[in-house]
Amino acid sequence: MTTITLIHPDGQVQAIDVGSDESTMQAATRHGITEIVAECGGNAMCATCHVYVDDAWASRLPAMSDDEDALLDGAAAERLPTSRLSCQLKITPDLVGLVLRLPDRQV
Ligand code: FES
Q: Per-domain residue ranges for the chain?
């Protein structure tokens, strides 16, 4: 179990715990984070779990798959260079304290 930080579109900062086997999407939905819709349940088919990785962390994440890359092109909110799908992000020891910004819409 570790903690990550979410920044809501209104600037509110919220720390949530993430289990060792959870994706950041699963942790966010378990905490009732409404900005993460996750329509497909984490199967990399919907892009409604879109997040913006904080700039300081973006280069530390593993590369995205071709499927994730393609799905992000269809995200409801603007795609940015730091966009990722939270269902594809699991917290490894070097990502403890990760900061994610939540987009203003997912659909
Ligand atoms: S939950 Fe559907 S792509 Fe992440």
A: 2-101
